[in-house]
Amino acid sequence: MAAAMEDSSNVSEAYPMTGGDGPNSYAKNSIRQKLVVDAAKELLTKTIKQNLDLDICLPCDTFYIADLGCSVGPNTFLSVENILEAVKFEYQSRGLSSQIPEFQAFFNDHTLNDFNMLFKSLPRNRNYYAAGVPGSFYGRLFPKVSIHFFHSSLAVHWLSRVPKDVTEKTSRAWNKGRIHYSNSGDEVVRAYQAQYSEDMECFLHARALETVHRGLVVLTLLGRHNGDSHSLGNVVVDILGSCLMDMARKGVVSEEKVDSFNIPSYCVSPQELEVIVERNGCFSIEALETLVCHFPEHGAKRSASTMRAATEGLIKQQFGEEILDELFSLYQQKIEEQISILEPKKSAIFCVVLKRKTN
Amino acid sequence: MAAAMEDSSNVSEAYPMTGGDGPNSYAKNSIRQKLVVDAAKELLTKTIKQNLDLDICLPCDTFYIADLGCSVGPNTFLSVENILEAVKFEYQSRGLSSQIPEFQAFFNDHTLNDFNMLFKSLPRNRNYYAAGVPGSFYGRLFPKVSIHFFHSSLAVHWLSRVPKDVTEKTSRAWNKGRIHYSNSGDEVVRAYQAQYSEDMECFLHARALETVHRGLVVLTLLGRHNGDSHSLGNVVVDILGSCLMDMARKGVVSEEKVDSFNIPSYCVSPQELEVIVERNGCFSIEALETLVCHFPEHGAKRSASTMRAATEGLIKQQFGEEILDELFSLYQQKIEEQISILEPKKSAIFCVVLKRKTN
Q1: Is B234 a member of any domain?
Q2: Which residues pair with B49 in a beta bridge?
Q3: pLDDT (average), residues A329-354
Q4: Number of domains in chain B
Q5: What is the ipTM of this complex?
Q6: Using an 8 Å Cβ cutoff, are B128 and B103 in contact?
Q7: Which residue in the set A130, A134, A146 is minimally distant from B130, CB to CB?
Q8: Residues of A in contact with B131 (CB under 8 A)
Q9: Phi, psi angles (nearest 5°) of residue A82
Q10: For labelling, which of A25, A121, B7, B286 has a CA lying 20 to 30 Å from the CA of A314?
Q11: Is A14 inside any structural domain?
């Protein structure tokens, strides 16, 4: 009976994407995330073809899928649909059409995620039973040995919390004048790395217990290529930080608040990830590939909307709602002045396929 | 693959209780419902002791509970806790403490239910994994043979829709000048009975597929004693109807709207219920008892709040939000004038225990 003990609500902060379906909502500003889901589809299909043992859902005869960090849709529905179709196809192509199981899909995100919006958006003609699961994926969410296929797209780069040291004035890792580790000193980088490593240990520990033996965990994540500097993929976050510093200089926000504000995200390298997975020991890495995403040029305005949908909750909590319009207008202006940074070559999106060992 | 075909969202209307935690919310106005949960606890415990085969959750080793029509809490958490404690106690008292399974609880209600509020209210120290399941319980909600214990408290007296005939001017069952069947002619009563019967057939058909063999379905329901007239348990609904007619006479609402407005609820008798369960054929009735609920005298004001929390959504949809305050103030006044009708002896609350046959 580990549920209460390992319940994640005590160990994690919540940074849900902006809810509802208004102009600044995640639902209306997640087109790039959709392109990532599209790009992952081929690998998902190949993964299921090569790695899925169809007998894993016996004797219950239901195939259980969970999407972690689902936000409010619609991308999460697309991911689940892609998985479901690929599994069904495998049954068909192996001559087992009559044995296709039923499917239940669990949509997970923080308790403060807008589940009302998610449920209202569920596709009406879906071929699965749907359930919402509130809580941090860095803790236990499901009973033991109950999920056949875990999926998560662009969510596990979010840390469970800001590393403590970077907000403490007395610490050597104090991140004064910046809101991220990407252009900061080694101490700050190490604090972020340590938090990521700890979080992923919790993540893998929980998933190892919850995944059916020979079940799959497929994660699409924002990362950085081996050997790349930390700043490469995080240019837009640095621009957001410089906007906040500008506003501090103008007295719109307090400098102290900017000093203590940090975006809790980390871009892992494949090498780092391999070490973490091996240390956990319960999963084999079946694939770890760079996803080729064809992002259209989306301009400064769209960049501002995307950034706002993802970070509005965090910023509101620290600085109040009233600064949002000014901040993102300034951000848009700065991006316009150096539009070339939006070129997609600098971001690295990986897809890793883990298979639960049977030991 | 019956999910899409049997998805309930197409066949049912939604009447969620008032969400949030404001003064008119269900969360703040469900004390009587809590007393019903308390009253059912003893029977629940006895039921589990006498009827639960502990091997039914093998080989998955997780005990799956679903509460249907859960609203926003907190009563639903109490019900789940009561079930969980009784199941654990059975393991312990049969010397199987080391084999106590993990628990997952599914909280179900209409898609428009306030799941955000429900999730925020989940007890922090719970001993189960929680999930929300949106959709009408008159359709399929779960995979086949996946739930060990279904529970529903004061929810299955709500029909899936207003019986069509009672709103049609040309029908013999047209329910002019009334908002319920309780004091209406035989044709209206028959239309409500037919709708209830049809709904419960759908309910039992879906649960029969979803319940693990030898699993239990425990329903607490508002009903009427065998032989009692339909009006006995529905006096307060009739008073609400008379308030609306008064307001129509004063021109505050249109008479036509009152004529076409009907509360979609039905109080079944034990005899009727037995017939429906036997016709379905998949469940044995292990118990069907009258619950003894000790309602405190709660006065006209509390009666108005309780009625409002349960019917506000329905009324808003038909008449608009602006009439709510006046309507329930009038209702309170009328109840005050005949306060003796609140005496609990006139209501009949039953608890029925169904066990899934193994055929």
Answers
A1: no
A2: none
A3: 84
A4: 1
A5: 0.90
A6: yes
A7: A134
A8: 106, 131-133
A9: -60, -45
A10: A121
A11: no
B184: which DSSP letter?
Answer: S
Q: Which residues contact B186 (CB under 8 A, 6 or more apart)?
A: none
Q: Is the pLDDT of residue B21 over 80?
A: no
Tally of helices (H runs) and strands (E runs) in chain B: 10, 7
What is residue B11's predicted lDDT score, i.e. its pLDDT?
40
| Per-residue tokens: A33 | 């995330």
Contact B267/B228 with Cβ under 8 angstroms? no
Q: Do B103 and A143 touch (CB under 8 A)?
A: yes
Pairing of strands A283-290, A348-356: antiparallel
Q: Which band of pLDDT confidence, cut at 50, 70 and 90, is reported for residue A31?
A: confident
Note whether residue B2 is domain-resident: no
Q: Which residue has the tokens 């979803």?
A: B210
> A153 is in which domain, residue-wise?
3-8+26-356
Asked if pLDDT for residue B51 goes beyond 70, the answer is: yes
A335-A338-A342 Cα angle (round to 5): 70
The answer, for B116 touching chain A at a CB cutoff of 8 Å, is yes
Residue B344 clears pLDDT 90, i.e. is over it: no
- pLDDT for the residue B331: 93
- Residue B310: pLDDT over 90: no
Q: Is residue B212 part of a domain?
A: yes
- pLDDT at residue A18 greater than cutoff 80: no
B104–A146 CB contact, under 8 Å = yes
Q: What CATH number should be reported for the domain holding residue B203?
A: 3.40.50.150
Beta-bridged to residue B67, according to DSSP, are B107, B151
Handedness of CA B135, B138, B144, B149 (dihedral sign): positive
Decide if A131 touches B, using CB distance below 8 A: yes
Q: Which two tokens stand for residue B232?
A: 């006995």
Whether residue A286 lies within 8 A of chain B, CB to CB, comes out as no
Higher pLDDT, B268 or B2: B268
Is the bond preceding A264 in cis, omega lying within 30 degrees of 0? Answer: no
Confidence of residue A107 (pLDDT cuts 50, 70, 90): very high
